[in-house]
Amino acid sequence: MPQPTHTTEADFLAAYSIHDYPIPLASVDVCIFTLHEDHLKVLCVKRSDHPHKDRWALAGGFVDIRGDDNLEATALRVLAKKTGITTPYLEQLVTIGNNSRDPRGWSMTAVYFALIPYVALPQTGSEQSQWQDITIALTLNLAFDHQQLLAMALTRIRAKVLYSLIPANLIPAPFTLTELQHAYEIIMGYEIEKKSFRRRLEREQVLTATGQSKQEGAGRPAALYTLKPECALFNFKRQLDSE
Amino acid sequence: MPQPTHTTEADFLAAYSIHDYPIPLASVDVCIFTLHEDHLKVLCVKRSDHPHKDRWALAGGFVDIRGDDNLEATALRVLAKKTGITTPYLEQLVTIGNNSRDPRGWSMTAVYFALIPYVALPQTGSEQSQWQDITIALTLNLAFDHQQLLAMALTRIRAKVLYSLIPANLIPAPFTLTELQHAYEIIMGYEIEKKSFRRRLEREQVLTATGQSKQEGAGRPAALYTLKPECALFNFKRQLDSE
DNA sequence: TCAATAGTGTCTATGAGACAATATCTT
DNA sequence: AAGATATTGTCTCATAGACACTATTGA
In terms of domains, do A91 and A127 share one? Predict the structure, then answer.
């Protein structure tokens, strides 16, 4: 790709056009997770248009370089459109770029995952979106490479659950310690020791007691807590047993 | 962005042009690390052209959608061009996309870091590349947002050194346990206990003894090992103390 | 009082840190 | 033998798991 030589940067930029070279499509896909009725769910969208019309897919969209200040803004726009939620836990998972994932051409997608407390989905626009149980979603033959992206997101979440506080982002606050532990157990797929679980939280002082309590049927009321905002990204140094 | 409706996917794709919408520039940047003379070094390139002409930068380049099968191929191409190395440890770090990082326009870059044993740099082409000591590199006022990218790469590596085998990728194989431990210590910035270090390696059986040994001046010869290929991505469950 | 749920006490097991002791080289 | 470097033995400490025990509520 030979280029003329320019004396100043301004000179160079004035002559520069991105259309001199073909460039990839740029998109963002978001695995939006929540917990509902004792199951981990992911938001799936029924595609209303080509390509892969009428197949289920993850939430996603092209980067709008006029409207989106940055990649995260694209992710938040996609998320807000589908769920109405504007302050999720949002983490970049991976970026995939190749010529085979999208029939429209060489495509580069930044994949994020978002964790939110359950909300009923507003059905906006022509695309139908739905919370799908994870085990179901993995059998839906999702569009593009979304099956693999979802699998990667699950792998990441199941790794992080062992040493982070991410499940706190999947349930409404305030929550009881039992509710929080239950969120961990649903993601992990097995039960953990109540005492170990509480000891870690206590030792690291990552929760705030609201002073309120909540009663589950009969039995002693449980204290309610919130996650300290400054501890949202806290990582324990030692992991829980991986079964 | 209104679009006509198409009956079939083939119909849709035939009418599709990526130039209907403006899209970001797509690039890959690579923090190439090595260990040399008891220091962690990063490969820096003196930019021979605008923008940021004559400033130091990380290795990087635009995605070539005709030549690169995928993003990793772009990273490997950049790496091979600068170092001649084709089989590095290569890990995706983060992807940054915004309108401010590159004066040429909205730019999306997938950032990788590569870990390689030291090699003298072939000086190919017009751009001068050099191994820079990390502490120096952080003061070079790198081009674009490369200062931040380098800082992120360092953060990632210093986190992973506590529970992974990544330092083994920075030294030539085979290596002695003392050499490997030294690689860890350079990255960590403090010394660790020989016994703990060796115990972990022994317990997890992640190294292969070559049967050879190597003598460092006077003193007992040290056994030589290589990293088992299938353990390249092994993670210890517990971390070393973070000082 | 009993059932149910929340919360605690405490013993064991694992694996990291500390550091002393032993082994195998060169000079 | 002395000095240097490699390798191992073993005690201590921190933290997770197991599990029994106590606490507080409604019926």
Answer: yes
DSSP state string for A29-94: EEEEEEEETTEEEEEEEE--SSSSTT-EEEEEEE--TTT-SBHHHHHHHHHHHHH---S-EEEEEE
Q: Which domain holds residue A61?
A: 24-160
Nearest CA-CA distance, residue B94 and chain A, Å: 7
Please state whether the predicted TM-score (pTM) of the whole model is above 0.90.
Answer: yes
Closest chain B C-alpha to A151 CA, distance in angstroms: 17
Which site among B76, B108, B155 would you substitute to test the A interface, given the most A Cβ atoms closer than 10 Å to its Cβ?
B108
User: In terms of domains, do A216 and A156 share one?
Assistant: no
pLDDT tens, per residue, chain B with 243 residues: 444 566 776 776 677 766 678 999 999 999 999 999 999 999 999 998 889 999 999 999 999 999 999 999 999 999 999 999 999 999 999 999 999 999 999 999 999 999 999 999 988 767 799 999 999 999 999 999 999 999 999 999 999 999 999 999 999 999 999 999 999 999 999 999 999 999 999 999 999 999 999 998 899 999 999 999 999 999 999 999 997
- Please report, rounded to whole angstroms, the spatial distance between the CA atom of protein residue B233 and the C1' atom of nucleotide D10: 31
CB contact under 8 A, B51 and A19: no
Same domain, A37 and A146: yes
Interface test with B, best of A68, A106, A236 (most B CBs within 10 A): A106
B175-176 β-sheet, strand order:
B175-176, B222-227, B207-214
